[in-house]
Write a structure and sequence with these properties.
The structure is a homodimer of 727-residue chains. With 727 residues, chain A is mainly alpha-helical. Helices cover 65% and strands 4% of the residues of chain A. Chain A has 30 helices and six strands. Chain A has helices at residues 3-27, 34-37, 39-43, 62-69, 72-113, 131-134, 148-181, 207-218, 233-261, 287-312, 325-331, 356-359, 363-383, 385-394, 397-403, 408-412, 414-446, 452-477, 481-488, 495-502, 507-527, 529-541, 546-553, 560-578, 584-605, 618-642, 652-674, 678-681, 691-697, 712-726; strands spanning 192-196, 223-230, 271-273, 284-286, 314-322, 344-347. In chain A, the strands form two sheets. The first copy, chain A, has a four-stranded antiparallel sheet with strand order 2-5-1-6, sandwiched between helices. Chain A is globular and about 85 Å long. Mean pLDDT of chain A is 82; it is low at 120-130, 707-712 and 715-727.
């Protein structure tokens, strides 16, 4: 890639960004698009254009001003602590890059540019004729030159800045978490614990009695009540069918009302077919009547099933509620039975993020599952090319024609055929990479983790290793990690040397990559073109009822599981190149700066968090920043070695201090992120908690009968106890 | 070693044992020796010869009957749970050896003896001409022979027996610990927690106020009071001086009374000299008057110092008392502050085993100390010959003569000189090995561990690695581990091969070693010759007062820290040879059987435990038995490899299953041994605990004023609070 094509690519990306910004400025002002650009505010019942400025006077850059003016408390109020922690991450990384950039750029660029290397030292100069930028990189410095001292000190400077800011950030996040957990608001999950691996109930005792008597004896004063986890499969199925029918009924009624107002002859009543397959087969019936009938048929069925579930389908897990936050917090950390695989107690997840089906998995089964998943993921990371090659081999045109005969006429066209033949493997790869986050989420869920946020953290970790190992190291070294292993096999420990040798050659590739990421990626993020188009299409052709329209614009959450590993990849690239080609630092600064600005806007106005884990993601981010820092230091050690610099071993203390720093942080801070601190939980509450309401937040809608809201569940449960005691 | 010398050694050991037994039978019947043979019973206020049998009718083997008839509850009553757990260890190991012996001996011995090896396979046959025993070992089986299958299956059999018995034992010990912890007796340590790393007290608050308000806010209902750890150095010094004077006064008074009764002229009043050096210098004074004066001088000084200590020397650690066992148990497991290095809470050790000086060591200092100690111990294990060589080189006769001129005349005698020159290095080694347990205890204490039992566990672990690595592997491979490393350096992973090749050659050495251990070791243990002689000497020449005599016979405890590693060494040897030379199994059986019997007697009648950790030693024993098992399996893998047996890899699943077994046991059982389970602590107490008495058990004697027993401490403390609040 020569300089002009680099510039072309940069300018193109920038142009796309400007266009997307303009699109955003124009589209976001149209009232019809408010649900796309301000859903978070709308859902919180706020005016989308809050801030006093009238509609007309708002400039196209008002959002920038708003984002910059917003405080951390605003973010917490709008999107929760998790999102605020994400901004701590962004600003910490930004801080590291800015603080090292203002020292490294003015120092290292002149040092590199004024050296006159004897162009024999090949392998450390970028491919092609991209000499203008190469002059500004460490590749331009001669081997063994004493100028390398400047680069070595720069390596130290960046690391020390990173330690300092990371330490401050960990303290800050710790304080954020503490502030959230000691808040005087009553939060249901702070009063509950999750109990798993309950041993078989003794003869003549129901599970509920067993759990109640066990916890009553340990916590005579603060035990409130328990909720036994049940096998809700059947009840859920009926409930979903019922809800579906209700939706369809509303829809049919709306359509009927519309058709009446539009004055069609005799107000055509909507009809549908009763058959299963896509609603295309079966007899034609009147929709309104049909669904009304179905609902009145399903409602008693659901009620019967609810009772049966609560009575007969109790499982070996329970949620236990306490009247005190401190008791719940301390119970979640304490050993209850002498063996860890019985009466295993942990914090209850938030009601909205409980993975009910995972609660009943047994202790050792969870462990076995976890190790199996780890092995699968490790194999996926190492050999991810193999199944893709296999799938590509299978999906040749011959095979496709054989199994999918209807594509035959398309394939006959020569042009399409050529394209298909050439791109089938790539398509398989793209499909795999697109599905990877889903696959990792699915695998993490299989581990038996009880909460959604934990699953996303686990998947995010797996994704991080995948991207860093396959994208960064893969692209740098060339080919997949597996190929590299084969060459490294003969000389162990040479991965770093190979990496160091290949790094400079790919500097411009990664510069372009980072630029593309922030210009196009964040441009699309801000303008929300894709959700906007989908919403308008759905609204026009599919949605009939208010609920359906709301569903169409309802925003997702920030998407931790994939967003953080993506940022981490950019960070790893920027760090590893920061000394070798310091020009990458401004690119990294723009990436994280722009990301901060645009996501601040999105966090305040668009995304709605789907759970709150009170910053539990932070230790994972912290650990991975340190992993990137370690990779950077190791690479630099190898690179100085490749430059035949005698003082390269001076970097070893730096590597050791990174390990010590990681250890100290982990020891000092980590436990508070896995367990609530009692000193925090003991803070005063605003009001005496309404225990029944807390209990009720955990009742699944499919088990919550509508008729007698308040007494039904209680009745069913007391029936259970009674039934059990006579069984 | 040929067969006759092996027999000679065996018979000699056996003869010594018989003599010692006879000595024991004779001496233990003399009433004057009761304090040596029945101190535990005497201290518990029981009749030494309990059991109804009159003195005369007791046969010399009555103790055997008593030991066999005693139940686990008797042991717990006499020597505590820790000792009972030690017997579980002994009987488990015995069970493993017996159960494998009854299968292995009848099967393997004939299989080995009937094979006719072509005596070319050197290296797997014992050194020398000890062919009679060799015929019964695996060395007698030909290479690649299908007879090796029997040995391979035997390897499996022993392991499976071990898994089964260890699993049962872990469950049993867990139940023992639970029974002890849920006992309705009030035990002070179950109501207290140890708080370390207390942050600096805020302005205008004393430490006590700070701690009280912190814990009151978290545990408003169950907090009783706190005790701040103080720097008692000065108070202790005065207290010890005072106690010394009191003892000497009693001694002087006794001597004076004696001299009066013996009718010496004018009842010679005892005198002493006031000088420091061994009481030989200074002016001569009347002892009784001198000490009375000193006591009346020191008592107010101590009282003043006590007040000053309690007020001004408060440290950043405290003991906090709760009125409920459950709260204390759960507090000890819970995170209190957001950072782990502040308000670190753990179980309180028993009052008698608190290491007060270690309580105030800071969190990260403890960690740093721990790692430094680990490194020192690892170096000691690997290179323990180096300092000894160095010391030996330094302690040549020339140097000794130079620095210790008074030995010159001795050295001049030729015979002594030769002996000294020859044995100086060995003497250095023996001194080092004798001091090693003390050194390891000292090092473990430096780690900052807060309780004596924990220190002994830590030292025991270190000693285990030292003995197994240096004695077992060292003797087998020949030379120290360090020498072996040098030969292994070129071919990594060959340690096992070297070990496997050297094992058969040392079979007879270890047979003799085990026999010596049990005959002489346990003979001395039972007969207690050494303590008896020391006691009688002391009684005759040193002791004057009752207290001094009691001190002279007061028994120690079982001595976990060195006894367990010693047993482990025997177990490791027996296991590693069990298949190669099955004849070792009966020796192992006798060792552990005799050990069980004799120590049962000692536990019931002699030793007095110096602390109670409720079986916390067990997980360590369990882990080390598994380590021995793993070493055995690895050795067998290497040995089958040396025998060129194609199916040797069939042992790999066995090794993996040992690792899985260790993992599962650790996961399932371990946590209960580091933290009390709440379900156990919640059991009913016999009586409402007398909190003031519990609190008082933790008050050090040096801080406990005698005058106003009950109010003084309270006053001093409340003064502190008041003083603090006005400061």
């Amino acid at each position: 890639m020569d300089f002009s094509s680099f510039l072309t690519s940069l300018i193109t990306s920038c142009a796309i960004f400007v266009v997307l910004m303009a699109v955003f400025a124009w589209l976001s002002r149209r009232p019809g698009n408010r649900v796309i650009y301000y859903p978070n505010r709308l859902l919180r019942g706020m005016d989308p254009l809050d801030g006093g400025a009238s509609h007309a006077s708002r400039g196209p850059f008002a959002w920038i001003h708003e984002a910059l003016a917003s405080s951390e408390q605003d973010v917490i109020a709008a999107s929760g602590v998790d999102t605020a922690v994400y901004f701590v991450f962004l600003s910490t990384v930004l801080g590291i890059l800015v603080l090292s950039g203002i020292v490294l750029l003015p120092v290292l660029l002149p040092v590199a540019a004024t050296d006159k290397p004897s162009h024999t030292s090949s392998g450390t100069v970028s491919n092609g004729t991209f000499s203008d930028l190469d002059k500004l990189s460490m590749g331009n410095v001669e081997e063994k030159s004493s100028r390398l001292w400047a680069f070595l000190i720069a390596t130290y400077w960046l690391s020390i800045v990173a330690y300092y800011l990371l330490w401050k950030a960990y303290k800050h996040v710790s304080a954020l978490r503490a502030a959230a957990l000691m808040s005087p608001e009553v939060r249901a999950e702070q009063f509950a614990v999750l109990v798993r691996d309950i041993p078989p109930a003794p003869e003549g005792q129901s599970r509920k009695e067993q759990v109640d008597s066990y916890f009553k004896s340990i916590y005579p004063d603060t035990f409130y009540r328990s909720m036994i986890v049940t096998n809700n499969e059947e009840a859920n199925k009926i409930y979903e069918e019922l809800e579906g029918c209700k939706k369809k009924l509303v829809r049919a009624e709306t359509m009927y009302a519309e058709s009446k107002t539009t004055g069609k002859p005799e107000g055509t009543r909507p009809t549908n077919k009763t058959g299963g397959f896509l609603g295309l087969t079966g007899t034609k019936v009147d929709s309104i009547e049909y669904y009304r009938e179905k609902i009145s048929e399903l409602t008693p069925k659901l009620e019967a099933e609810q009772k049966a579930t609560l009575r007969d389908k109790q499982q070996a897990a329970a949620l236990v509620f306490f009247t005190s936050r401190v008791t719940a917090a301390s119970a979640a950390q304490s050993l209850h039975a002498t063996m860890l695989d019985t009466w295993n107690v942990m914090d209850a997840p938030e009601p909205r993020q409980v993975i009910w089906t995972n609660l009943t998995i047994k202790f050792f089964e969870r462990q076995i599952r976890q190790y199996i998943i780890y092995i699968i993921v490790a194999l996926t990371i190492l050999f991810f090319m193999i199944p893709i090659t296999f799938v590509s081999a299978f999906t040749t045109l011959q095979n496709l024609k054989k199994y999918l005969p209807f594509i035959k006429p398309i394939v006959k066209i020569a042009a399409i055929r050529t394209v298909l033949e050439a791109y089938l493997p790539q398509i398989a790869l793209i499909v795999f990479l697109a599905l990877l986050p889903k696959l990792l989420l699915f695998l993490s869920k299989l581990e038996g983790i009880p909460s959604q946020s934990h699953i996303e953290r686990a998947a995010s970790g797996k994704y991080f290793y995948f991207t860093v190992l396959n994208v960064f190291i893969g692209v740098t070294v060339g080919g997949t990690l597996f190929d590299t292993f084969k060459t490294i096999e003969k000389k162990p420990n040479s991965l770093l040397t190979v990496l160091a040798a290949s790094l400079p050659g790919n500097a411009t590739f990664f510069l372009t990559f980072v630029a593309l990421k922030f210009f196009v990626g964040y441009g699309l993020e801000l303008s929300r073109i894709v959700p906007l188009i989908i919403f308008h299409l759905k609204k026009k052709y599919l949605c009939k009822t208010e609920a359906e329209i709301k569903e169409a614009w309802y925003p997702g959450d920030l998407g931790y599981a994939t967003r953080v590993p993506g940022d981490m990849l950019i960070l790893t690239i920027t760090l590893c190149y920061s000394i070798i080609a310091p020009l990458i630092i401004p690119f990294g600064v723009v990436y994280f700066g722009l990301g901060w600005l645009i996501l601040r806007n999105q966090a305040l106005k668009v995304y709605v968090p789907s759970y709150e884990s009170y910053g539990r993601m932070w230790p994972h981010m912290h650990k991975r920043i340190l992993a990137a820092l370690l990779l950077y230091q190791l690479t630099m050690l190898a690179f100085f070695g490749a430059k035949k610099f005698y003082y390269a071993p001076f970097l070893v203390p730096l590597i050791i201090s990174t390990l010590i720093f990681a250890y100290v942080c982990n020891q000092k801070f980590y436990r508070f992120f896995s367990n609530p601190a009692l000193g925090v939980a003991s803070h005063q509450l605003k009001e005496t908690p309404h225990m029944e309401r807390i209990f009720r937040t955990y009742v699944l809608p499919s088990l919550c009968s509508e008729k007698v809201e308040d007494d039904q569940f209680e009745d069913a449960l007391s029936q259970v106890s009674r039934a059990g005691s006579f069984a």
